[in-house]
Amino acid sequence: MAKFDVNKYALLGAEARVAELSAELAEIYRAFPALRARGGRTAAGAAAPAARRHRKPMTAAQKKAVSIRMKKYWASRRKAD
């Protein structure tokens, strides 16, 4: 009985799909040459990503205060139910 190698067929399928996508990309670049100059990025994609927020780390006292506050909050929520 012949061994059926799924990975081999998956690789062949993936290679075929990459070839299809490459051909499609070449068509798009032929139709819109300006895209190649921008690296394929559209005007919306060219915007810089949003800056990440940096927070100051909490001290042990601040963490304890938050802990007490949240315990009170959840106790009141449980009591309301």
Write up what this structure looks like.
This protein is mainly α and 81 residues long. The protein has a domain at 1-40. 64% of the residues lie in helices and 0% in strands. It has helices spanning 6-31, 33-37, 60-80. The longest helix is centred in the first third of the chain and has 26 residues, at 6-31. The mean pLDDT is 87.
Radius of gyration in whole Å, from Cα? 28 Å
Note the main sheet.
none
Helix/strand/pairing class, anyone?
mainly alpha
Approximately how much beta-strand content do the residues carry?
Answer: under 5%
Could you state the oligomeric state of the chains shown? single chain
Order of helices and strands: HHH
Helix content: 55-70%
Query: N- to C-terminal separation?
Result: 66 Å
Quick synopsis:
The protein has helices at 6-31, 33-37, 60-80.
Give the SSE map.
Layout: H1 6-31, H2 33-37, H3 60-80
Structural descriptors:
81 residues, 3 helices, 64% helix, elongated, mainly alpha
